[in-house]
Amino acid sequence: MRTRRLLLIAMSGVRVRSEELRRLGMTLPGFIERGRVVASLPSLGLLTLAAHTPPHWEVEYHECDDERDLAGRWDVVAISSLSARIHEAYGLADRLRADGTKVVLGGLHVSALPDEAEPHADAVVVGQGEAVWEELLSDLEAGRLRRRYGPRPFSLTRARVPRYDLLDIRRYNRLTIQTARGCPLDCTFCGASRLLSAFQVKPAAQIRRELEAVLARWPRPFIELADDNTFAHKRHAHAVARLLGEYPVRWFTETDISIADDDALLEELAESGCAQLLIGFESTRRASLHDLDSRRWKYDRHPRTINAIRKIQSYGISVNGCFVLGFDEDDPGIFEETRDFVRESGLSQVQITIRTPFPGTALYRQLAAEGRLLSPAAWDRCTLFDVMFEPKRMSVRELEEGFRSLMSALYEARETARRKALFRRCVRARRDAGRSGG
Ligand code: SF4
Predict the structure, then answer these.
(1) What is the topology classification, in CATH, of domain 4-17+45-149?
(2) The CATH number fitting domain 174-435, selected from 3.40.630.30, 3.40.50.2000, 3.80.30.20, 3.40.50.300
(3) Are strands 200-201 and 180-181 parallel, antiparallel or unpaired?
């Protein structure tokens, strides 16, 4: 069988559009730390597709979109892009196709808007790529490529080990492993929770294989779990924590506040190398959470937030608390309220973003129906730092300015150092309690 060539391109890094915010970000160490980490993660989705590619295909993985030397060398180029860079991805796809290269587009944005993507591609993949990838490549070889593949269900019991071997390991400071896909909750602004898949977990034996593949290339790695909500399924949560605890890894993941209810799990996490949990508290104002998810789950849990943060951190596990600004209940008082809440809670790290209507989300549909989108389909504004809609209880300008001043207050060097010092105290207290057998 003739050797074929496949190029995978990830377009992931996001640029903050606002000049003022960009300038401010450059001076705020706490803010750029996490930004750097996120921008340097490889695309697990594309590495997973590579694992589902038959052996007579040669595969390369690129993160830059430098198109020099790309045209004509590949039987097919597959591009996955975040919403904020989708117009760049379409432009690249158009140029490659004009040179005769076949292009496949996929990922979250394309899955939400396949009609928009279709004119820029020879084929678009909707939903989970693994479900259709082998069929797509076989159709391509047979000259019968269809315009659209998926959505089709895919069970993580059929998952394969991502092709970590395609990465130049020196470029990364952490690698990703997925242990669960989707989320049982349905926050209105969340594009990740259901768009690709209903919530499902990966079998522990497969997670072990993936972990060992990472360790084979990087003996003491820092791992970021590429999950939407790792500990939503409690039996799975314990299995993941115990499994990671068997290896010399440090790791990070995203989850929800219910983890604070499970002391045994917190103990396992503390012993397993878990460095930090990122938790979406979403708002310090309870009324903003009332209609956030259909079960009012975050609304009901809101009064326990501060105790939960303190409890998790008492195990020596840092909490990175995420807050979204621009809910319909938010007025200009929300910025000071958020700053005070973060201080009082003792959070070791904090992440703030502006409520963003990503395509395919309930929030986008709501704001479009209410005529509140500032410019529909301006996807380059989906950066999480640009205002895309008319807020209800303040002006666009008040939201932008309040957000900037909250950023300054939360991320300036002294405040970042204060949070780190507080957390170091938690770690010391736990260590001392351990020594004294407490
Ligand atoms: S808890 Fe997080 S992952 Fe789950 S739906 Fe809400 S925002 Fe999305």
Answers:
(1) Rossmann fold (3.40.50)
(2) 3.80.30.20
(3) antiparallel
